[in-house]
Amino acid sequence: MLIDIGNVKTFVLEIGSPMPIYCGRSTTRFGDASPLGNPFRQYSRRVNIEKYRVWLFSRIKAGDKRVISELLRIRELANTVLGVILLCHCSPQDCLTR
């Protein structure tokens, strides 16, 4: 299983690249937010990530079909030969994709 992390601003899709999956908020470049996008932005990066982890586990526990479906899709793609690269705006800084 191959899962890598990259920045949307620097990622270049090339033949043989892992499958890119955007994991952030709504943007003009990527359109709608990912079901895994961090809903927190009013605190420090560290606090936002902590709140995000609690939120994500609560969504899984509640059976949120959008979140669970996206996690299963990532797992399925990660098991392919090329794997996946989770893209966000934070990388290489700490972020929700870690």
Short overview:
The chain has 98 residues and is an alpha/beta fold. It has two helices and three strands. The protein has a three-stranded parallel sheet.
Q: How many alpha or pi helices? A: 2
Amino-to-carboxy terminus distance: 15 Å
Q: Which percent range fits the helix content?
A: 25-40%
The proportion of residues in beta strands is 5-15%
Strands of the biggest beta sheet: in what spatial order?
Answer: 1-3-2
What pattern of helices and strands is seen along the backbone? EEHHE
The major sheet is characterized as: 3 strands, parallel
What overall form do the CA principal axes indicate? globular
Unreliably modeled segments: none
Radius of gyration: 13 Å
Q: By helix and strand content, what is the structural category?
A: alpha/beta
How many beta-strand runs? 3
Whole-number average pLDDT? Answer: 84
Q: Can you walk through the features of this model?
A:
With 98 residues, this protein is α/β, with parallel strands linked by helices. It is built from 2 helices and 3 strands, in the order ββααβ. It has helices at 45-61, 65-78; strands spanning 3-7, 19-22, 84-88. Strands 1-3-2 form a 3-stranded parallel beta sheet. The longest helix has 17 residues, at 45-61. The two termini are 15 Å apart.
Structure characteristics:
globular; 2 helices; 98 residues; single chain; alpha/beta
Indicate the topology.
Layout: E1 3-7, E2 19-22, H1 45-61, H2 65-78, E3 84-88
Parallel strand pairs: 1-3, 2-3
